[in-house]
Every structure is written in structure tokens, then in C-alpha cells.
Amino acid sequence: MKEILIVGSGAREHSLVWKARQSSSVGNIYCAPGNPGIAEIAECIPIKATNVEQLAKFAKQQKIDLTIVGPEDPLAFGIVDHFKSQGLRIFGPSQQAAQIESSKIFAKNLMDEADLPTARYKTFKPKEQGEAEDYIECEEIPIVVKQDGLAAGKGAVVAESKSEAKKVAKEFLDIGIPIIIEEFLEGYEVSLIALCNGTQYFPLILSQDHKKAYDGDKGPNTGGLGVYAPLNFIGAEEAMKLYKIVTDPTLRALANKGIHFRGILYSNVMITKNGPKILEHNARFGDPECQTILPLYDGDLINLIENVLSSDFDQIPFKWNGKFGHCVVLASRGYPSNPETGKIIEGIEDAIKIPGVLIFQAGTKIENGKLVTSGGRVLCTVGIGDTLQEAAKRSYYAASKINFDGKHIRTDIGKQGLKFCNYDSEVDIV
Ligand code: AMP
Ligand code: GLY
Fold first, then answer.
1. 268: CA distance to ligand 1 center in Å?
2. To which CATH superfamily is domain 121-183 assigned?
3. Each residue of 5-46: pLDDT tens digit?
4. What is the CATH code of the structural domain delimited by 188-419?
5. Which of 99, 114, 264, 280 would you call most buried, defined as having the most Cβ atoms within 10 angstroms of its Cβ?
6. Which positions make up the signal peptide (predicted)?
């Protein structure tokens, strides 16, 4: 039986542990550092996800057969290179390959060199504030200002005025962070997630995240407040076309630079009236895409990853269960800028009893014997159903049963997909 280590502490990692538990070849599962929800189904180890050396020591001591990395920071710190240097088996890209997420400038330059579809852009270094302002002055609004480097999904600002764009650019440049200023793209977003080894990959079903804090795609960007999958308005053939336009050439462009990408390539794509355009690439599972998609995969997660690691792509079954997943994130008041914490969470026991519902925890901790909030995205409810409508009803019903002071959810997750369901009357998703 295999010993598994999963690195991270969010709802994404909770779902990875939950799915790995169902694998017939798995013995013990450890999660570092994990959270109280994960502790119910795995052994949590108090080592930070970024403490690469301690994690490798633990993996050696415990004779871990496979480590799966959830978040981006350990990848950017080189966890995969370090584990490999110690002879440890790990799934994730090298530090060099993870630059596709850890440096937006690297990613944009790669897209440029390989002529991949993306928004028109220009990059500016900290000393180039004047040039950045001149550029903004000549461009149309809205305009997007992005910081280079990792920002937990919150490093892009869509500025509605030139003065706002200049202010944001100055804030980043003043603290020494290079920026990208890019054209605002109109359309709808799609998440493409592929398990890759070099230029070969296994594509997951398409999903759609909701990044903005409030209903109607208003407010600041967040890490993502809800996802549904698959997308009922994009057929399987169309979906494969998207992977061919986005994932194939990206992996080839990396290979041409001598970079072998082994791990997850998650591309956030805007479907515009001029076709798909890549907004960004990530080197890991999307969160909350992961917790929405994994329950729809009927195959064995550990076998899947093992097959990808050994390039046995022919062995991987396309085992989707034909159901829909719908995920609602319960966030804290003040998220994303200043989330309140320490609020008592109630109702999980009732919510978990609802048929077709899964609950994955993220920003939670135990304080004085009680489960309390400890971060911006607290937990998520995932509804599984034969239709998107059924899945949405389940996740929203579960979300209504769970309470904490300042609970914030978006009430329009899946709106675009729900328009395509066969309704006699108005869509009622709450
Ligand atoms: P990123 O961190 O680059 O994925 O950006 C986060 C979010 O900002 C995306 O999911 C989009 O909602 C929005 N965004 C980023 N770039 C653009 C763009 N060029 N045009 C419109 N929206 C964008
Ligand atoms: N779903 C957004 C992210 O994982 O960055």
C-alpha cells in the first residue's frame, strides 16, 4: 500500500485527500499542514507548505511513496527539485517550469514568443513609472494592471479609469514589483486543467470560476468564490479544440526552451468574440476547480497521477461520471482585503447530511474546542447532481445551513451555465 503526502491546507487539498482516500492502492495519507476538516480523514503534520526541507525530511522518514503539491508557493520555492534531489517521488513542476505561474512576465513573454493568443501588453520595471503612466494615458479603459510574482489570485486589478490604473501601477512599482499593463478582454472565463508530462497531457473537463467578490462580477478579484463543471454550453469536441489552442502550444513552447513541464497546467482563458485568449497560466490545480471536478472523476486519482508520472497516457481512462458539480465558497466578511477571523462556525453537521453534498474546509481552526474561521475563504459546499440545477440547489442549500458571523457568498455561481438548462420558468438557484 502506498504512503501519500499532500502538501497544503486549503479546500483544494481537503478534496485531494478525500479523493486519494478512495484509491485502492493507498495506505496512510498525511497532509502538511492540513486543517481540521482534513484531520478527520488524514493525519495532519504541523509543517508549513513552504518548509521544503522539513517536508522532504518527513517524506524520507515516513517512506512516502508519492507527494502531491497543492499550492503554488512550495512549487515556486523549488519543492519538486529538492524532493527529486533526495530521491523522493513528487508530482508537480520544477521551480523553472513553475515560473509559468510565479512570474507573469515569464508567462507573457513565453506566450509572445510562441505567438499564443493573449491580451496585448507591456511590462514595466520599478524605475519606469513615468513610462507606465504614459502608456496608460495612450490606452483605452478599462485597463488591467498586474503585479509580477505570486499574489494568491489577487494580483490583477481591472482599473475603470486612467487615474486608478496609474495609482495601482505606482503602488506596485513603489514597492519594487515589476508590472504588466494589459488590454481589458471582454467575454467569459473558462478553466482548462491538464495533468502533464512534457508535451503529453490528460485534460480534465472544463469548469468556470467566479473571481470577483460580489454578484454580477463586481468588486475586487479574489482567489475564486465558486465553480461549476462541466460547462454545458461547450461540447466535448469544442473543449478539446480549446486544449489544442491553449495547452498543446504552451507545453511545446516550454519544451522548446528546454523546460519539461511535469505537473498540472491550469490555464485561465477568456473566450472573446475574437476567440480564446489566455489570461494566465498556473502550475497547480485550481481552487475551487479541484474540489468541484474531482467528485466527477470516477477513476482512481493516485493511478491517474502515477500514469502521468510514467507517461502512460494510454492507460488513463476517461472516466467522467456524467454528473455536474457546483461549488459555493463561504468567505469571511472583509475578504479579500481584510478578512475577519475567529468566528464560530455552526451547522456543518447538518449540511453534510444533505444527499449529494460534500464539504471541504479551508480557513478553519479549532479554538477552545470549537471550529472557528481562520482565513478569507473559510470552506466550500459542493453539490453533485444529474443536472447543473440540481447540483446548484444542493450546494446553495448546504451553504444556507452553515453559519458564522460575517458569512459572505456569491448567489450567482453558475448563472451562465444555468441559462442553458431546460427551464419552464425563471432560474431559481438559491
Ligand atoms: P489573473 O491573476 O491574471 O488570472 O487575473 C485574475 C482575474 O482578473 C481573471 O480571472 C480575470 O477575471 C481578470 N483579468 C485578468 N486579466 C484580464 C484581462 N486582460 N481582461 C479582463 N479581465 C482580466
Ligand atoms: N481558481 C483560481 C485559482 O485557483 O487561482
1. 8
2. ATP-grasp fold, A domain (3.30.1490.20)
3. 999 999 999 999 999 999 999 999 999 999 999 999 999 999
4. 3.30.470.20
5. 264
6. none
